[in-house]
Batch of 3 targets.
Target 1
Amino acid sequence: MATKPLYLVKLGGEVVEERLAEIAAEVAALIATGARVVVSHGGGPQVTALSARLGLATKMIAGRRLTDAATLEVVQLSIAGKVNVALQNGLAAAGLRAVGITGAIRATKRPAKVLAGAGPAPIDLGHVGDPTGFDVELIRHLLDGGYLPVVACLGHSDDGALLNINADLVANQLARALDVDALVLVTSVPGVMRDLHDPTSRYGTLTVAEGRALIDSGVAKGGMVAKLDESLAAIAGGVRAIYILQRDIAAALAAPGTVGTVLLP
């Protein structure tokens, strides 16, 4: 019997906020084809909105959030709380047995480092971590039991420190740890584009070299810089394919390059 394909679907916070029912239905349709699916998520817009309500300034550097102690509390409330619960509810409404997970990521604090798109000086992002491992056994146990794991982008260090982790980085490294057939990044844009205002400027496919050139030339801007940077590293590290798209997940997987942008080695 052929092994069922395994996909990791990463949802941005804006997708959860604006299109949860639509994307939940797409995930349900994908699972109905016989695929196994793990969902991971961020929650940047929700963190920014709650920070504003609390009078906390948001500071972004090359698409990455500076996380001080106060912002870390907001991250917990927004990502592990509001977004993860909303996702579980939305996926359950689509007929899926979704289970939220907030403790499956081991991490270490990220040291100051040079960031793509932020100049030559090393930058310390505060309470921000890099994954060092995942509880793959737990995730596979849930999959084997017919559940849909929903993984929040929070990690814990060996000494118990909570760390905010870039959701694309979590998705990329979790995709490697699970050896998925493809990683799907569902975003608010229809793919990687030369001009965000011109739908015809979408790149159907990109190699690692082509994607790196978009960053170096400044064509990729804002949050797309971080998304591309982490994704290209994941492809170079062994992830088979990464799809960046807005909708139509099953169609993109069935015909690579026709929907969104697919990153390949």
Note: The mean pLDDT is 92.
Target 2
Amino acid sequence: MTEQQDAVHLAGSALPRSRHVCVFYRGLDEADEILLPFIKEGIDRGEKIVHIIDPKQRDNYLRRLQHVAIDTSAAEASGQLDVRLWDNAYLRFGRFDQHGMLALLEEALTEGRAQGYPLTRILGHADWAIEDFPGVHDLVEYESRLNYVLPKYPDPVVCLYDLTKYDAEIVIDILRTHPTVVVGGVLQENPFYVPPDDFLRELQARHLGNTAHERFSRA
């Protein structure tokens, strides 16, 4: 294959070397425009798709895949399409465990290769994070820690955030934890990306500052 044929495309452009990607979108129609061609490309190439979704959206999600000529029944039966629900991924045991989730993603990547797939494309919707689940406040730290794990693999991991559901402060932090982003339907290397050593140090300083402020306020 040529280099162009080997390229992984998202939002109409080839992904760069850094394949931890954040897609910011507004509503399912915009998400579909960006993601369905990416998923279809992977299916057509014989790659594995792992997509973590809202349990309430499973049937609707499969219908949308069928609209772009993906045989979802065959793909699920063969294991090429692995649709995982939040309850069995981010929210196992009723809480978000960032270290458990890091291990789960790495397991999915190595499992795909062991099953003979040339690449595994992982997508995860993060709308669960707007709910008040235990551990949810570790989301930003988790996104940063992914940058220790994912450079070991060529597989793209796409984190999905609906901008209509998050406040600006969280969006900025999420942006800063992803080396590659899609904003306004355009794929780009992220000039605001902060490497995990630096970002986690900043989070620790924030935590210490907040703790000191709370103690001062109670004094």
Note: The chain has a mean pLDDT of 92.
Target 3
Amino acid sequence: IITRALGLDRDINVDTDTFDLINGDYILLCTDGLTNAVEDWEIAVMIGESSNPAEAVEKMIAKANGRGGMDNVTVQLLYKND
């Protein structure tokens, strides 16, 4: 979980990390507009039931917006598939 806001300063501290992915791994980058409206287990189900990452993202955004869309919802889903 990344919890650092970028802010408005000219200079920002950037967190970086390196890790290995294997085929079938997903990385989800999203705003709290998604995670405040949709539970983690629901996100996992949507990913598992979707035929591709784009479909899963569409489902996640629709679910968050369907629950009121109280904050902007931004979702990026990356999939490792060699």
Note: Strands lie at 26-30, 75-79.
